[in-house]
Amino acid sequence: MTRRGARCAHSSGSTLTAIDGRFYRRRWDESRGDEFDAWGHSVWYFEVDDDGWPVRQVEVYDTGPVLRYGPGHEEDQYGSLGQASLNDPEEDWSQFVITRDVFERVWDSADG
Fold first, then answer.
1. What are the pLDDT digits (tens) for 92-110?
2. In angstroms, rounded to a whole number, what is the distance separating the alpha carbons of residues 33 and 18?
3. What are phi and psi of 100, to 5 degrees?
4. Whether residue 48 has pLDDT greater than 80
């Protein structure tokens, strides 16, 4: 697991149930800790599968960069799709649930 993947796994824990949904939006007010640190803090959007594994992910940074990961583009020089399940009983993500429509709008707008 990459350093960023480890951070994502730690920050992204969740107990997923049918009520919780499959789409999440969460703000991270922490440093990337790498050469792209100047991008600032970020908002992360996730679509997860039934076991909590990220299927698609968008990272929107305060200074403008937007990263998009999913099928066919799991990683690049800036990062990668989360490499850990969000299904973690230590953290409740129910407050971060968003609708599919919200996720799809962000996903589509991140495509160039």
1. 888 899 999 999 999 999 9
2. 35
3. -60, -40
4. yes
